[in-house]
Design a protein that fits this description.
Strand content: under 5%
Number of domains: 1
Distance between the termini: 32 Å
Number of helices: 3
Number of strands: 0
Mean pLDDT: 79
Order of helices and strands: HHH
Largest sheet: none
Structural class: mainly alpha
Helix content: 40-55%
């Protein structure tokens, strides 16, 4: 794969790039099965933060 530096000031697709960069913020998400047994055993509140913290430790 070859990488090229793009001169955005002279790029033909600049307006499209700017639109999606500034007007349509992109996000990524994933849906997966997650074993929350450890969270439940610790009797933690089941919140997104708890699940996220546990997932990062795995």
């Amino acid at each position: 794969m070859e990488y090229r530096v793009i001169d955005r000031n002279n790029w033909q697709r600049k307006e499209y790039f700017e639109h999606y960069l500034k007007e349509v913020p992109c996000t990524y998400s994933i849906t997966t099965k997650l074993d929350i047994t450890a969270i439940k055993k610790q009797r933690l509140k089941l919140s997104c933060d708890a699940v996220d913290s546990h997932a990062r430790l795995c």
